[in-house]
Q: What sequence folds into this?
């Protein structure tokens, strides 16, 4: 059987795997051993499964394949941020980032190859969406970035943010399944409270998060709190207006009791005035929330510029004065195009494919 005809073993449930083993005359518990190798120990080759007989490993090799992501080039920023290029089995390329601070090591991971939302300020939005990532491919990024953290900083990951390439809620099923593999005690065993999923704001799917009772944190890429401005920079707002977004977030909070985070990239002379701040305050009061003010990282087209630091400080102080929890997030990894909104596959591997 050639490689293309083989089934990716990570797509199978324990029950399906047990059935194969029973057909081979093997004990059903072997399926759980294999699943432990795949999701707890992150095996990428059947030869690593040393508590299985050589004969069984050969049977697995003959029928199945592990389509693990491959790590390509890495770049290290002056501030210690590490960008990692990864390729899929079908030669698609994505980027993931390790963001280190003294207190935490955060993996910023991708959920799609490219993106279809075309946000005006985002380099990833200028790429075509080629396909969704499977849950195993999202999981592989966490494993790879964790290894980067261990190799570079001698400490494991503490946090994960779904803020890389793509819109996680447009790949809902795979995103949810990947979180399960990352948080389950049969997987990597990380706390859901250390995971944040960021979305441009798809109201229907936010309600679905509430119905599913998710435990991870939710962040909304807001960037403007009036429909005219937000639609100008985020086309998704035309079909998911601020009213529908606030309604969905209220529903989500009612179901989960999880406070949301509004991400607010601040642009020079666009959304950095006190009036803009007042609009943001009014929106924040509709649902328990906090605000991360993010400095803009210019991309090649030069349409937007970074806001003046004094103006940013004044904006944040105004929010705080009105009782809104607000933090200014300084960008990391700008010199290697690894900062927020800069992931655009400017790497050798992407050019080759």
A:
């Amino acid at each position: 059987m050639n490689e293309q005809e083989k089934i990716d073993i990570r797509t199978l449930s324990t029950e399906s795997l047990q059935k194969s083993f029973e057909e081979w005359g093997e004990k059903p518990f072997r399926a759980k051993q294999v699943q432990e190798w795949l999701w707890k120990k992150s095996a990428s080759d059947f030869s690593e499964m040393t508590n299985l007989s050589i004969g069984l490993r050969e049977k697995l090799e003959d029928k199945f394949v592990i389509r693990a992501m491959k790590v390509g080039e890495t770049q290290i920023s002056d501030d210690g941020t590490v960008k990692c290029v990864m390729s899929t089995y079908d030669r698609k390329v994505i980027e993931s980032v390790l963001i280190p601070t003294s207190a935490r090591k955060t993996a910023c991971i991708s959920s799609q190859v490219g993106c279809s939302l075309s946000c005006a300020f985002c380099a990833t939005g200028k790429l075509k969406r080629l396909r969704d990532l499977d849950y195993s491919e999202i999981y592989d990024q966490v494993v790879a970035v964790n290894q980067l953290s261990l190799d570079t900083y001698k400490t494991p990951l503490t946090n994960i943010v779904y803020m890389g390439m793509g819109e996680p809620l447009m790949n809902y099923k795979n995103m949810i399944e990947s979180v399960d593999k990352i948080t389950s005690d049969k997987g990597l065993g990380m706390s859901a409270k250390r995971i944040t999923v960021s979305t441009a704001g798809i109201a229907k799917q936010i309600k679905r998060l509430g119905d599913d009772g998710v435990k991870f944190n939710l962040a909304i890429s807001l960037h403007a709190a009036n429909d005219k401005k937000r639609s100008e920079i985020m086309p998704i707002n035309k079909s998911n207006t601020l009213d529908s977004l606030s309604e969905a977030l209220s529903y989500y909070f009612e179901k989960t009791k999880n406070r949301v985070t509004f991400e607010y990239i601040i642009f020079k002379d666009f959304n950095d005035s006190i009036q803009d701040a007042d609009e943001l305050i009014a929106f924040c009061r509709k649902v328990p929330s906090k605000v991360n003010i993010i400095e803009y990282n210019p991309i090649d087209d030069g349409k937007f510029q970074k806001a003046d630091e004094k103006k940013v400080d004044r904006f944040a102080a105004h929010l705080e004065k009105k009782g809104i929890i607000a933090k200014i997030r300084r960008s990391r990894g700008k010199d290697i195009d690894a900062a927020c909104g800069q992931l655009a596959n400017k790497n050798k591997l992407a050019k080759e494919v």
